[in-house]
Structures are given as C-alpha cells and as structure tokens.
Write a structure and sequence with these properties.
By secondary structure, the chain is mostly helical. It has helices spanning 26-29, 32-46, 49-55, 63-86, 90-118, 125-145, 151-173, and strands spanning 3-5, 21-23. The protein is globular.
Length: 178
C-alpha cells in the first residue's frame, strides 16, 4: 500500500496540477536507517572519532569502545528494523523510533552543534547532514501519513530518543562524570 500526496488545483481550474508524490512503504523505508548508520560509522572511523572525543570533547573513548558500542547499536537497530518490517505494533514502532532518533536524529544534532562550538569538523558530520536528516524526515512523514503512529506518539518517541542519546553520551563518552 502506498500513500499519495496530491495538491488539488484551486477551484478556478486554471492552475497547473502538481505531480503526486508516492511515499515508500514504512517497512521498506526503515532499511535506509541501518544503511546510513553503517556509512556514518565509517565516516567516524576514518575521521578518528575516538581521538576527537578524547582530545577535543574531553571525554574518554577508544577504538575498542567505539567498535563495541557501534556493533551493539547496529545489532539493536537491525533487529528493530527487521521486526518492524515484518509487522508494526505500538511498542515495537515506538522502540524503533526512540532508538533510531537517539542514534540518528539527535546524534546528527550533536555533530552539527559540536562543529561550530569546537571550531573544527566533528567526525560524522557529513553523513549526519546528508543522510540522517533526509532519512529521518522521510520516515517521520511516512509514519504519520501512513498512520503507523499518531503525531503525539511520534513526538513522545523522539523525546525518549533524546533521553537515550543523552544517557549514551553521558555513559559512553564521559563514563557518568558530572
């Protein structure tokens, strides 16, 4: 089932009709998230993200922690995507949106925020801006337009994702330092 968005021409009948946009199915579009995450991890690896965290952000991170965290996050993301590609449900979709927003949407904002704060490139910025945001916006539109979640429930899942992201940064990069 696809959803079509069309703009009806004004009642005057003289306006040009806009082309219909067909959105992909939710169960197909969500596979873009692990693909983007894999490319993002690659950019962070090449950009020496662990050293950037340790030297510039004043956290504590090494390649072993980087590898283990990303392996675990990818396994969780692929599992949630797989489950939602088979059958959506309120709990599993909420879990996917919360987890994915923490690891894609909010992580992208972190890279975007840290770049001007530190006056230097944050490893992961390019994939976050070029992949994370378009994919997150697309999936958000699909979720609401296809009735997968209400707008309110989607917003709550985003807030849960922000809390998850904050916890991951606090624990993973700063080891519960206050």
């Amino acid at each position: 089932m696809t959803t079509q968005l069309t703009n009806r021409p004004p009642s005057t009948g003289t306006a040009l009709r806009r082309a219909a946009i067909t959105l992909p199915l939710f169960r197909h579009a969500i596979w873009l998230m692990p693909a983007a995450f894999a490319l993002h991890i690659t950019e962070e690896y090449i950009g020496n993200f662990p050293a950037w965290v340790t030297e510039d952000v004043h956290g504590s991170f090494d390649y072993l922690a980087f590898d283990l965290n990303n392996l675990m996050f990818m396994a969780i993301l692929v599992t949630l995507v797989f489950l939602n590609s088979r059958k959506t449900g309120p709990v599993r979709t909420f879990a996917l949106v919360a987890f994915a927003s923490g690891n894609l949407f909010w992580d992208g904002l972190f890279h975007l925020f840290m770049t001007p704060v530190l006056h230097q490139y944050s490893p992961g910025l390019v994939t976050a801006m070029l992949l994370y945001y378009p994919i997150c916006i697309l999936i958000g539109i699909i979720i609401v337009k296809q009735g997968i979640m209400t707008g309110r429930r989607f917003a709550l899942a985003l807030v849960a994702g922000l809390a998850l992201f904050a916890f991951v940064v606090w624990y993973g990069l700063f080891h519960f330092a206050i």
